[in-house]
Design goal:
By secondary structure, this protein is of the alpha+beta class. It contains 13 helices and 17 strands. Helices cover 32% and strands 24% of the residues. The strands form 4 sheets. The chain has a 6-stranded antiparallel β-sheet with strand order 1-2-3-4-6-5, covered by helices on one side. A 6-stranded antiparallel β-sheet has the order 13-12-16-15-14-17. A 3-stranded antiparallel β-sheet has the order 7-9-10.
Length: 411
């Protein structure tokens, strides 16, 4: 076994891509395992491959989302050249799980991938290579030591690019290429949505819409309509699911969902229609006490919100809307879009951590003028939801300033 840059011990090769190789590597000082990616030896001297690798690192390093693998290090090795280090996802490749997926689980996978795509699309990035091969199902410890949730992770940003960038070649798996992309057009949000539809077709039929040699697949993407899913599996499929996948795979980009968020909304709607959503408690009857609590929540002098573990705002009070600076009603928005996220860079990690450890996490961040933001994130009692409370702590002359971005788990 050899070391990389004097600090990573390569233990085993765990993946091979078009131009890269991925190894399980252990940090010599920390003792922690990571995934380390290098340019494949055949492309080590290729200037285009090196530029693409550096571009992947730059784009991926900007991203922090529960459904996207994080970049933790980057460097140069005397023998291997450029390398990047990512968190190691412990779990199963989606390709190995397809045969066992239920309809509910398949929709859940599509929804989580859509969340990841919406996050990067809002940052002007197109993934360009959405496919089952680039998706892992991670094992994440839940608040309970008995139950474990299955979180989707989108991998490989080797073909990601800024939206609107000039293209000189068509890249990506032909099985997932949108018709306009197969014809030589640019990668867009709509082409990522099409790939999401192909992924759905695969999850429900266990087959890809078109298969064969590359030229046949590319022409089929442009000219042919895939077999109906029911015909492919030889049994009926729910019309709502069929409509969801068929629309995402429309030959006309304008007929597809206009965004990954719109696709996610359709997934949630289908799950609700088919009673696949999480079991909901019977809503309480309106009471005077309930009205008082709702009024108190809205009139509270400090910001409060209920958010999902991946950062979507479910409900928020007026103080939160003012502090978030995204309009009078931040409901439905992402925390990453708010002024709070800009002030607290680790906000999303804090939100994700609270339900995972089952305890309240406090975070204090010094802001302009010596003031501080104090954030509490606590499990909300609803699976994968978090209660947030934020207040501004005013700096007093002669007082002790708040520590910068420090976190503490409160038992």
């Amino acid at each position: 076994m050899r070391t990389v840059a004097g600090r990573y011990l390569l233990e085993a090769r765990i993946g091979v891509g078009g131009m890269g190789e991925v190894y399980r590597a252990r940090h010599l000082d920390l003792g922690k395992a990571f995934a380390l990616k290098v340019i494949a030896p055949a492309f080590a001297e290729d200037a285009h491959a090196r530029d693409a690798f550096h571009s992947e690192v730059r784009l991926a390093s900007e991203l922090s989302h529960p459904n996207i693998v994080s970049i933790v290090d980057y460097g140069e090795d005397a023998e291997l050249g450029s390398f990047m280090v990512m968190e190691l996802v412990e779990g199963d490749a989606l390709l190995d799980q397809i045969a066992q997926l239920t309809a509910r689980r398949a929709l859940d996978v599509l929804g989580q991938v859509a969340d990841a795509l919406e996050y990067i699309h809002k940052r002007g990035i197109i993934h360009g290579d959405v496919k089952a091969d680039n998706i892992m199902i991670a094992n994440e410890p839940a608040a309970s030591s008995v139950r474990r949730r299955r979180e989707v992770r989108l991998l490989d940003f080797g073909l990601a690019r800024r939206a609107g960038r000039e293209e000189h070649a068509v890249g990506g798996s032909p099985h997932y290429l949108a018709p306009e992309r197969a014809a030589g057009g640019p990668a867009t949000i709509a082409t990522d949505i099409y790939a999401l539809g192909v992924l759905g077709y695969l999850l429900f039929t266990k087959t890809l819409p078109f298969d064969g040699d590359t030229m046949y697949i590319l022409m089929a993407q442009i000219e042919r309509v895939p077999d109906p899913m029911a015909a492919r599996i030889g049994e009926p499929i729910d019309p709502a699911i069929d409509a969801l996948i068929t629309r995402a795979m429309s030959k006309d980009p304008d007929a597809r969902p206009r965004s990954a968020a719109a696709f996610r909304y359709e997934v949630d709607t289908v799950m609700d229609m088919l009673a696949m959503g999480r079991r909901r408690a019977r809503p309480p009857r309106p009471t005077r006490n309930g009205e008082l609590l709702a009024a108190a929540f809205q009139q509270a002098p400090f910001a409060q919100a209920l958010v999902t573990h991946d950062g979507r705002i479910v409900i928020a009070n007026r103080a939160f809307a003012d502090l978030a600076d995204i309009g009078n009603d931040p409901t439905g928005h992402w925390l990453s879009e708010t002024a709070i996220a800009h002030a607290i860079p680790s906000l999303l990690r804090t939100v994700e951590r609270a339900p995972r450890i089952g305890r309240t996490v406090e975070r204090r961040v010094q802001i302009e003028g010596g003031d501080a933001l104090v954030l509490w994130a606590a499990p909300a009692g609803v699976p994968e939801h978090v209660h947030l409370a934020v207040r501004v702590e005013r700096h007093l002359a002669g007082g002790v300033p708040a520590t910068r971005d420090s976190a503490e788990a409160i038992g």
